[in-house]
Amino acid sequence: MAEAEAALIEHYPRLVRLAYLALPATIGRHRRVVIAHRLAQRSLRVALASTVGEGPYAQLRREVLRQALAQGRQSGRVRGAVVGAGLPYVVGLRLHPQAGGSAELALDRALSTLPGAARAAYALLGVEGLDEQAARNVLAEAGADDPRGAVRTAVEIESDHRLLSAGEFDPCTVQVRPTDLLRRRQRVRAGLFAGAAVAVGGIVLAVASVGGSPRPYASHGSPGSAARGSQPVDPAALVRVPAKAWTTTARLDFTAWPARGNRATDNALLGRALAVWANPARSVQVTATPGTARTAPGQPPQLLYAGDVDSVTVVIFYDGLRLVRYAQARTGGGDAAALDFAQVADADLTTAAAVVVDRVDGNTRFLTAPWVDGAQTRDLLRPDRPGVPLHRAADGTTDPVRMPGAGVAAGTCGTTWPVLQLRSSGRIVERHSFLLTDLGDLSPVHLTSTPPPAPGVTARAPREATGSQALAGWAHAACRLGELRGQGVRSVNDWEFARTTLPEGAGAALWTCDRADTWRGPGRATVQFVPPGSAPGAPGTPAGQQTDGSACSRFGQHVMAGVMWQSPGGHWYLLAAGSRGVVSIASTDGVTAGASGSSLAVRAPRGTRASLSARLTSGATLHPLPGP
Known about the structure:
Elements: H1 2-22, H2 29-49, H3 56-73, H4 78-82, E1 93-97, H5 102-112, H6 116-126, H7 132-141, H8 147-155, E2 174-178, H9 186-210, H10 267-278, E3 285-288, E4 302-309, E5 312-318, E6 322-329, E7 338-343, E8 354-360, E9 363-368, E10 372-379, E11 388-389, E12 401-402, E13 418-424, E14 433-437, E15 445-450, E16 463-464, H11 468-477, E17 489-501, E18 508-518, E19 523-530, E20 541-546, E21 560-566, E22 572-578, E23 582-588, E24 593-596, E25 599-603, E26 611-616, E27 621-622
Parallel strand pairs: 3-7, 15-17
Antiparallel strand pairs: 1-2, 4-5, 5-6, 6-7, 8-9, 9-12, 10-11, 10-13, 13-14, 14-15, 15-16, 17-18, 18-19, 19-20, 21-22, 22-25, 23-24, 23-26, 26-27
Helix pairs in contact: 1-2, 1-3, 1-6, 2-3, 6-7, 6-8, 7-8
């Protein structure tokens, strides 16, 4: 009995996630969350009564999946089965996991079309990391129909199993919203809301107590509302991580950052910063990246930095989902302070490698992660120039770095685009360097590159943009980064999806798609055509753009585009190119032509606006992204 109880406590979040993924999407997210918790909690009773010779966790997992699959078969009676079934029971509120990005949404939609056994199989492969045979065995023990077919169906889904660790699929980290709040009378409304809060608190606190590393677990409220009326956190309760914690953990993100800065022990300063965060006066300038809540901390945050920088005093906190930066004049108090919020959920080795400490006169100082072993600056517009060493103080703060686009007109990038090139410690990974660029948020943006396709080689994954070919590609894309300023961008990948030979012996052209992903989820894709002979740093010609979708991501791996191009001989051509899955391209409406393969080049009158389409190896039709 003690072993089963310990297994439930240790693995509760995994069990709830398994149940959530296996339950049918047709019952709605709120009911999936509530039922998933119920099934995980009920599994203990059945596991204790089981006589099967399995380990306690295997028994709990089998029972969770058995119940989830049974609920799926009786989806028409799920509502009746839940009502009155005991806790967790929520009145007057609706619970749902955090919203994910376009990749998570696409996966959720794909899973919603599968039968319950196939969803459970995908969860076993992705969450549990089982191989196909082990997943079939678990499904068979859970009473699934056709375990072999279920696993086969799950394997056919093209996706990254790491997406299952995102908040979109985490029923233990939920947001809360009222239902019919406005239609209730005042007294009834207050009573039900209080009761619901207690019920929700019962769920959330139970999850938090068994979920491992601490994370915020309730809704942060409306992103547009500033935090007011909350009680500030006691500075003594702040989370402080030991200086060498990053050397003994496999989780390298902000949770491994120690508290640094010459005022990290100044409780008066920390108390003032926490008080302003909890209840900012109207004189405090509050900013947030799009979609980031401005609310007070739900629990004591982690202290990352407190110190004097240039003419200001800065305090930086991390609450598990957000970075919060408090700044005041070095000689003043908190009345004329600034408070900045930024999302950083699920940051990693690179995206948690630096934070903006201060900006002044077009320059930025960064605080680097403890695992950063070396720092340089380099100019994206001059890929052939080597990096220049960047000095860092003992506490990890850098010398000032010129902000990209500082002092130039909007929509341009000037003659230089400075970026950081950081090197990870050899204790983590050998010879690992990566690029970060400042786009106006607290967290700099990670720049990656995907090389062009090679015959007979499987599709390539994004990699660090530090090689000569990657730097040459980014030199043509850098100027468009300014369009993403202040948008809460997490990373941008420059993908060279095609290289085509031009007519009249004019040389080879490059076709790229730059994919920008934000911390809150939505992304943007921009296709460019780079003709031969383009000078280093010259921007490509825009050939298409998608402002919110999956294009050029792992869920949108096929792309095509077309442009009108004038040859050195003065002739105009309609050019088109597609990614590796394109087997033919056709044009209509002004130019009727077609070509097998992944490219098209046909003479056309100047100003032609033809309609393009491509056929994929799967037989599906692909259309270009809309014009920018």
